[in-house]
């Protein structure tokens, strides 16, 4: 079944290999490669205005067509995993079978917990989580198969096994980290009757049906954001060296742990809470404007706003806003988030240099989790990480199935650029 896709790639290369996709400018080289197309990523595509499409489907379309656990409920992330892997919308039966398949793979070896326990409980949740992922690597099917010697065309098979095992085991590892740090280490056993996201929420200690719905939505929308974001790109890059999926994903998580990327969800809630602490809950628009300016003048960014590609409100923000309007319209932190949506964009526009003054996914997620009792902001990036394994894992399988090569772009020195520009000007 892989042959037609492999043939399509071969045809693209042989017939159109020399077609130009744009010009590389000095600005791009110095500016973090913004706008430079440089990677094949099959699972999703980001439009600057409209936002993400997973295999061609927007978030509202996914909410409509992907199977849910309850009537008119949020999509089950297993359905999105199926969509990313196959390009096809699954039936409820297929999603249920995938839930069971993931459950059957979810046992975590004891040494993984021991590796986490070797860290001080004060270590950042992302450090503890990534340590767990590194310990899971001991079981890598890809590494074993590669060491035995296997043809390149078959690399995708142990990659598939590793990615499914990784995705299925992460909720266990992540909930262990949460309960270790914030709940005196009292673990909660999995409930094998539940779907992936609900079981994760249960193991964290949250069983409110609305929280289960939130977790399904949360895990679905954070999965994938095309290939150029720091975590996805890192996973893809490291995987291109034929490092196994555990090594690749642990590297990706280390990128996600940066404040300009996934850690922004932690930063947003801490920032919002600091606004509340300083000004009280009846904050006026003028006080809020003043607080935003104070943040900017102290040299910090406004977390949750701006984006490397998006030039509009992130649809992942919008669907979380819809969720809040439905389930928690009176929540004071949600009302503050809504006020920020009015106050921040004009200020960032006034600043003059910000290319996208609109909110991204991280501007909203924290207040939803906080509402249902998951108040520990330092943990939020771990949730993002669990979800992102679904996107990065799906693409890693396709990377190996399509035989994509080692990623190795060219770099140049400042002197090289200066000399080149002189030659061009002459
Ligand atoms: N607050 C203050 N300044 C900002 C912001 C912001 N929210 N967004 C961009 N800028 C600044 C940016 O720091 C840069 O300043 P300078 O030239 O002095 O270095 C200038 O505006 C131009 O940056 P852009 O080209 O608009 O943005 P860029 O593509 O470089 O960066 C982000 C994108 C997302 C890193 C940036 O918007 C940011 O720092 N946002 C806040 C952090 C955040 O929310 N990150 C989460 C992104 C989503 N995710 O989950 O990963
Ligand atoms: C993501 O989900 O990875 C972020 O929005 C960052 C990005 O796309 O650059």
Structural account:
The protein is globular. The chain has a three-stranded antiparallel sheet with strand order 1-2-3. 60% of the residues lie in helices and 2% in strands. The longest helix is centred in the middle third of the chain and has 27 residues. The chain has 426 residues and is mainly α. The chain folds into two domains: 205 residues, Orthogonal Bundle (Citrate Synthase, domain 1), CATH 1.10.580.10; 111 residues, Cytochrome P450-Terp, domain 2 (Cytochrome p450-Terp, domain 2, Orthogonal Bundle), CATH 1.10.230. Keywords: Transferase. Belongs to the citrate synthase family.
Summarize the structure.
The chain has 426 residues and is mainly α. Helices cover 60% and strands 2% of the residues. The protein contains 20 helices and three strands.
Radius of gyration computed on alpha carbons: 22 Å
The CATH H-level superfamily of the largest domain is Citrate Synthase, domain 1
User: What name is given to the CATH topology of the largest domain?
Assistant: Citrate Synthase, domain 1
The run of helices and strands is HHEEEHHHHHHHHHHHHHHHHHH
- Helicity range: 55-70%
Assign the structural class, choosing from mainly alpha, mainly beta, alpha/beta, alpha+beta, or little secondary structure: mainly alpha
Overall, the morphology is globular
CATH class of the largest domain, please? Mainly Alpha
Query: Tally of extended strands?
Result: 3
CATH architecture of the largest domain: Orthogonal Bundle
Bound molecules: nitromethyldethia coenzyme A, D-malate
* Strand line-up of the largest beta sheet: 1-2-3
The average pLDDT score comes to 97
Q: What is the terminal separation in angstroms?
A: 54 Å
Counted up, domains total 2
Number of helices: 20
Q: How does the major sheet shape up?
A: 3 strands, antiparallel
Which residue ranges are poorly predicted, with pLDDT under 50 across at least 5 consecutive positions? none
Q: What percent of residues are in strands?
A: under 5%
Organism: Aegilops tauschii subsp. strangulata
InterPro entries: Citrate_synth-like_lrg_a-sub (IPR016142), Citrate_synth-like_sm_a-sub (IPR016143), Citrate_synthase (IPR002020), Citrate_synthase_AS (IPR019810), Citrate_synthase_euk (IPR010109), Citrate_synthase_sf (IPR036969)
Family: Belongs to the citrate synthase family.
Protein name: Citrate synthase
